[in-house]
Amino acid sequence: MDNAQLLISGLANGCVYGLIALGFVLIYKATEAVNFAQGDFMMLGAFVTIGLTNTEYMGLPFWQALPISLGIMGALGYLLDRLIIRRLFGESQTAVVILTIALGFVIRFVAGLIWGHEPQTLQNPLAGKELRFGGLVLGLEDVAVIVVTILLTWGLYVFFNRSKLGLAMQGASQNQLAAYYMGVPVKRVQGFIWALAGIVAGIAGILFAAKGAVDPTTGLLGIKAFAAAVIGGFGSLPGALAGGLVVGVIEPFASRYIAAGYSQIAPYALLLAVLIFRPNGLFSQVRVKKV
Amino acid sequence: MRIIFKTDYMQDIRPWKDRYQLVLYLILLTVVAAAPWWLDEFYLGELTNVLIWAIAGLGLMVLTGHTGQVSLGHAAFLAFGCYANVALIEAGVPFLLAFPLAGILTGIAGVTVAIPALRLHGIYLAIFTMALSILMDDIIVLSEPITGGVAGKYVGGVEIFGHLVDRWGTPDQFFWLVLTVAVLVTLGYINLLRAPLGRSFIAVRDSEVSAQAMGIDIARTKMISFALSCAVTGWAGALMGLFAGAFNNETFSVLISIQLLMMIVIGGLGSIHGAFLGAIVIGFLPQFLSISKEYAGALFGGNTVAIPGLEFGIFGMILIAFILFEPMGIYGRWLKIRTWFELFPFYRKDMFKRQKSYLKTERLR
Fold first, then answer.
1. Which of B102, B98, B125, B99 lies closest to B113, judged by CA?
2. Do A97 and B70 touch (CB under 8 A)?
3. Which of B69, B127, B254, B357 has the highest number of chain A CBs within 10 A, making it the mutation to test binding with A?
4. Beta strand pairing call for A136-139 and A130-133
5. What are the transmembrane regions (chain B) (predicted)?
6. Which of A101, A117, A176 sits opposite B308 (nearest CB)?
7. Which H or E run contains A133?
8. CA distance B60 to chain A (A)
9. Ordered per-residue pLDDT tens for chain A, 291 residues
């Protein structure tokens, strides 16, 4: 019973990691860049929603605020691509890495200025409700997190592997010049994918804020999400979710069964191990091309 | 504009362009070495700090600027060097022996890290080193008998030729110690870049395939690069420990790693000047911010509240501006200005334009 409880809470946490990792993977799949600020995006999405719904700010009803905040996050993602990332077109990945790290600092700073540094929670219709399964206590938020994450991952997976636009994105990342020749609007595709990543980060932020408190440093969760993305192999959406679940489940079990000093190491140790032994992740879609 | 006619190959690989440039740098060195006589104690300390950061920047520059391996984990090696140095001194090794040893040990640690890191490139390497930097915090706590854990360590002065050199007691001597290390490292760096080894670093950075075709053993080159980089970073860490006097597991956090990387990007990747210029920016930004805050407070009514994250926020904005408009950093901008004057009136706008290439995936190699 105890273990099952740990498992459930781990799964719910893991879903949030998985959602952030989903953002990494989306951008990586389509543009070969990695957005190190994805965690801070999540934090921003949470704060935007808090700013719209909580009574001490604007006090809109939750279901009205939801599309507005997701729209804002999507627009932010698109603008970021339009104004900043697009100028780096054709430069090394390193430039994008350093730029997004810097961006994370800026976002943290701005969020701290606007919403203060106190941890806040989102007032939502699911708060405080519980489901009971014979001794297991499930917060309704946790259930919502798990359901939404699975639906979102499945939707994105289908979109990438079945629809024309999704395939165009993958093509655009694998060989830009060839994609141009094939008539893929590469720039527009990039803008779209950054907007999508913004929306995903917004969803992750809302779910996270519904579950627990958010403050400007929450974005540092992104590092754990990296572990998730790497375990899944950058470039596989279900893999990112699976990696997130693995990290999320390992955490509570480690803190339960391993000595205090060693427990918080577990996710990072796992990350290092995966990078050393399977650099392409456990579920990666990479086939080494032999020429 | 000075035109140098090179008449033989040895002239082409001299460490300085001509005697004029050499004299300029010697004058600069003399002025800096005489700093204790024309600076008050506070700013001397600041200058020492800048020099230490510059040494760390040089260490990272070998790896990131010249070998093209992005490392977000160099604070781990700073910490390693710092603790190794202190542990050796406490074991009774004289400082003059402990200090080089600390660097060498850090270099060895760097090689052990490099072995798995050789298989990774680009983003994976960045994530790997970042995780390493985070883990270092916990490792320091866990190895409490050596490192003092959360309580940290306190280090006083060190003894060199019977003189006690201490950050607070004898700031002048400490400054000279740091300056000596900085000059030695810089000279070594200049000569490294003239040697085949340094050139092979640059070849690996620019194109691994081409480097391989030229007969460079890439794995070996990357290993040596890691070793040198970590050794220099270890020395910087040892000096940082002496400078701070007290340190614990949180002194060398992952933020320090990121700050180091940002520093050399702002200074200019792939140039020795870049490490020093970046260090100057890092060292004096907090000062500048506090002064400007006082000004702002005086203008808009005395509101000088400390805003958390302000320093890093401003820093991030500066960095974004640099990456967008001046990818070569401060040194790149200086090069452009100098070229403009040298070539007047023939400077063209796109002289330093980088060649852009279409992206091709790294996943399908």
1. B125
2. yes
3. B127
4. antiparallel
5. 20-38, 44-63, 70-89, 95-115, 122-142, 174-192, 224-246, 252-285, 297-325
6. A117
7. strand A130-133
8. 14
9. 677 777 877 888 888 888 888 888 888 877 777 888 888 888 888 888 888 887 677 777 778 888 888 999 999 999 988 888 888 876 777 788 888 888 988 888 888 888 877 777 777 766 666 666 666 667 777 778 888 888 988 888 888 888 887 887 777 777 777 778 887 778 888 888 899 899 998 988 888 887 777 887 777 778 888 888 888 777 778 888 888 888 888 888 887 777 766 777 888 888 888 888 876 666 655 544 433
Q: Which two tokens stand for residue A250?
A: 């390992």
d(C-alpha A23, C-alpha B119), whole Å: 25
Are the C-beta atoms of residues B102 and B211 closer than 8 Å to each other? no
Best of A103, A105, A180, A288 to disrupt the B interface (most B CBs within 10 Å) is A105
Cβ partners under 8 Å of residue B363, min gap 6 = A174, A234, A235, A280, A286
| B145 at interface of A, judged by CB pairs closer than 8 A | no
Convert chain B into a string of H (helix), E (strand) and C (coil). CCCCCCCCHHHHCCCCCCHHHHHHHHHHHHHHHCHHHHCCHHHHHHHHHHHHHHHHHHHHHHHHHHCCCCCCCHHHHHHHHHHHHHHHHHCCCCHHHHHHHHHHHHHHHHHHHHHHHCCCCCHHHHHHHHHHHHHHHHHHHHCHHHHCCCCCEECCCEEECCEEECCCCCHHHHHHHHHHHHHHHHHHHHHHHHCHHHHHHHHHHHCHHHHHHCCCCHHHHHHHHHHHHHHHHHHHHHHHHHHHCEECCCCCCHHHHHHHHHHHHHHCCCCHHHHHHHHHHHHHHHHHHHHHHHHHHHHCCCCCCCCCCHHHHHHHHHHHHHHHHCCCHHHHHHHHHHHHHHHCCCCCCCCCCCCCCCCECCCCC
Question: Which of B144, B323, B354 to probe by mutation at the A interface, max A CB count within 10 Å?
Answer: B323
A-B contacts at Cβ under 8 angstroms: 146
Residues on chain A touching B324 (C-beta within 8 angstroms)? 84, 87-88, 99
Are residues A109 and B132, on separate chains, in Cβ contact within 8 Å? no
CB crowding A69-92: b at 16 or more within 10 Å, else e: bbebbbebbbebbeebbeebeebb
A123, two tokens? 């007032």
Nearest to B147 by CA among B248, B73, B244: B248
Kindly report the number of other CB atoms within 10 A of residue B111's CB atom.
Answer: 15
Task: Please list the alpha-helical segments (H only) found in A163-281.
Answer: 164-174, 176-181, 186-211, 222-232, 237-257, 260-263, 266-277
Of residues A89, A98, A177, nearest to B261 (C-beta): A98
3-state SS record for A51-78: HHHCCCCCCCCHHHHHHHHHHHHHHHHH
The structure tokens listed for B109 are: 């640690």
Closest Cα in chain A, distance from residue B215 (Å):
20
Q: How far is CA B362 from CA A6, B149, B250, in A?
A: 39, 41, 36
Quick check: A112 and B307 CB within 8 A?
A: yes
- Helix, strand, coil: what percent of chain A each, to 5? 75, 5, 20
